[in-house]
Design a protein that fits this description.
By secondary structure, this protein is mainly alpha-helical. It is built from five helices and no strands. Helix 1 runs antiparallel to helix 2 (52-80) and helix 1 runs antiparallel to helix 4 (125-156).
Length: 175
């Protein structure tokens, strides 16, 4: 059985086997957001059970994947620009409500996470705990709505290719 890296049945052009392309970044970003959300949920569960070390590992992991997300997000939007939302009707105001709340909260999240993390690393646990009560739900919401926005933009209401685009894709896969 041939692997995708050997070129059998993969979507990559010659010379790019196994490489992440610009068009892969939205999916990568959604996976990073989903991973951050899972690590946040598991980490919170650990601290509720009193396991500070596993909590610390999960939260540092969530911070790491969120940082990777931010880098990937900035690279994608610098290179590609914005992806217009194609949905119509009642879903359009829903999408923009989710997007607006996500964007506003995400803009203030980075400094909040950094201060919360710094307090924990300095063993200022009471100050950390007070701030984490705000940081955690915002971070979780931003991570989850990031995945929702991705699904709405690239799957549920993705733009349909024109006949010419479909023909080009078909020809390029044959050649």
């Amino acid at each position: 059985m041939a692997s995708c890296a050997q070129g059998e049945g993969n979507k990559y052009r010659e010379g790019t086997q196994g490489m992440i392309t610009l068009s892969d970044l939205p999916s990568l970003n959604a996976m990073l957001n989903a991973t951050a959300a899972i690590l946040l949920l598991v980490g919170r569960n650990y601290i509720k059970k009193g396991n500070r070390e596993k909590h610390r590992r999960c939260m540092l992991g969530a911070f790491g994947v969120s940082l990777l997300f931010l880098i990937s997000y900035l690279v994608y939007h610098y290179q590609h620009g914005s992806q217009p939302f194609q949905g119509t009707g009642w879903v359009r105001p829903l999408y923009f409500t989710i997007l607006l709340s996500h964007t506003v909260l995400a803009a203030g999240l980075a400094p909040l996470v950094i201060v919360t993390l710094r307090r924990a690393l300095r063993k200022e646990y009471e100050q950390h705990k007070r701030l984490a009560r705000w940081t955690y739900p915002i971070w979780l919401y931003v991570s989850i709505t990031g995945v929702v926005i991705y699904l709405m933009l690239y799957h549920f209401f993705a733009p349909q290719p024109t006949p010419l685009q479909s023909a080009v894709v078909l020809l390029s896969s044959v050649l």
